[in-house]
Amino acid sequence: MTEINFTDSLYFASVRFTKILTKRCTQQFKRAALSPACAFILMSLNGDDTTTPTQLADILSVDQSTITRSLNQLEQRTLIKRENAGRHVVVSLTIDGRQLQPTLARLWTDLNRSYQTMFTVNDESQLCALLKSSLTRALKE
Which of 3, 29, 116, 138 gives the lowest tally of CB atoms within 10 Å of its CB? Predict the structure, then answer.
């Protein structure tokens, strides 16, 4: 069998890094009994704003099926409501969803602070900038 050094692979390094970030994120939002997807949907809906499931999928860069599943969970917990608006469905926060916003903001801040144990603030901003520019180029291909 040929020896391949997977530790030098961008693919495997990014997968390992994503697992670490996902674990931290999942643990953080578990404090509010939410999955990261559900928390991000709630944080995307500000106050009395409404949006469509398609817009949420675009904003959060996730599949429509993930949005649908998460909206079902949030609606069951009465944190969001869905209403027909012509040919579209719009999503908005309920009173319970609005009341949860300060907790989500605190959890989000704490999550971002936890990243600083992995690297400095400057390292984090440089990594984000590099990922954004690389993603932009990759999407153009």
Answer: 3
Catalogue the E-assigned strands of the chain: 50-51, 80-85, 88-93
Instruction: Using DSSP, state whether 89 is helix, strand or coil.
Output: strand
Angle of the 64-76 helix axis to the 36-44 helix axis, nearest 10: 80
Phi-psi group of 4: left, alpha or beta (phi > 0 → left; psi -120 to 50 → alpha; rest → beta): beta
pTM for this structure?
A: 0.87
Q: How many angstroms separate the CA atoms of 79 and 116, rounded?
A: 31
Structural domain including 85 reads: 6-140
Q: How far apart are CA 9 and CA 24, in angstroms?
A: 23
Q: What is the pLDDT of residues 6-50, one digit of tens each?
A: 878 888 888 998 999 999 999 999 999 999 999 999 999 987 789
Asked if the structure places residue 10 within a domain, the reply is yes
Q: How many CB atoms lie within 10 A of CB 98?
A: 16
